[in-house]
Amino acid sequence: MKKSVKLAALTALLFWAGCDKPNPVQLEGPPGSGDEQSTIEVLSANPEQTNSPYGYDTTAFFKPEDASLRYGSALIIARNSLFTGDSVLVTSFAELYIYDRTQPVKDAEGRTVTYKTKSADFLRINNFHARETSHLFRWRRGGGLVDSLLGPKYRLFGKRGLLSPEFELDANAEMDIRIKMPGQPPVQITASLPEEITGSVKRVKVNGADAMMINWNSAGSGRVIEVLIGARHIETGLMIPFYRITTRDDGQYIVPPSLLRAIPPSRFDAPGVTLLRKGDLVSPLLEDGLYISAFSAYTIRPGN
User: How many C-beta neighbours within 10 Å does residue 69 have?
Assistant: First the structure.
């Protein structure tokens, strides 16, 4: 297991000012640990910023633009357990985007950041029917945030324990996915959620400074997980995501003091953590391929 990490480039990590986009920062394990590099992506370019285009709640931290835009459509599925100290709230979520690849959305440098979307007849997962809603895409352009209506998307969301949930997935669930495009027969795809992930967080000292130790049920060190770290802005109550860390799924990670110091305690509550175990597959049954990304997630609310 990893016992500690150190910064390979501290100045890169603290590259907040004047930066519009997340920056990858490399961390490496201590000498002799045998650990490969972990990667930190800075999600909020300024710790005072409260209008990040990256959401934090279950419906937003799985962004379709994270999926490969080489494919014709993307389906994001997640089951998240929110630990609040004395109970666990389980939510299930899915969104389908059918890209119109003839209508790219480009940034000021001419790079394609996503596509406008088009209609499907239906999305159904385990006999739960998705609702068609508007795909409102928030992105950075010209130094500011722009909201663009790109077309339809298909959404499922539900909470465990309701008498008639609109969507519910069990841990490690097998999923029967059915999608119908206009004028075509429905396609059927079988997928499953990654192994359920659970974890805990505690404060520790590293060389006398405050750090955060995260432990979870490992699925094997040959795999990777993502660790999302955010904090609640005291004045507005908004959750701001600061870092997405990709590391080995070996059951332990210590968040170094330098990352925690970059979150001003006078403006933000104690950081919270979401653990993400991810599985991807591509189905050829839809035009240009359907990219499916399934998550098992476990969120520890700040302060618990």
Answer: 17
Q: Which of 36-50, 78-92, 156-170, 196-210 has the lowest mean pLDDT?
A: 36-50
- pLDDT the model gives residue 109: 82
Residue with tokens 């860390």: 245
Model pLDDT for residues 172-199, shown as the tens digit of each residue: 999 999 999 999 999 999 999 999 999 9
Residue 219 CB neighbours (<10 A): 18
Beta partners for residue 44, in sequence order: none
Query: Of 210, 217, 218, 205, whose CA–CA distance to 271 is shortest?
Result: 210
Tokens encoding 47: 């710790």
| CA atoms within a 13 Å half-sphere pointing along the CA-CB vector of 178 | 11
Measured CA to CA, the distance from residue 300 to residue 304 in angstroms comes to 7
Q: Do strands 131-141 and 144-159 pair parallel, antiparallel, or not at all (unpaired)? A: antiparallel
78 token code pair: 């997640």
Looking up tokens 């990040």 gives 52
CB 220 within 8 A of CB 195: no
Bridge-based pairing state of the strands 187-192 and 131-141? unpaired
- Assign 258 to helix, strand or coil: helix
Claim: this prediction has a pTM higher than 0.90 = no
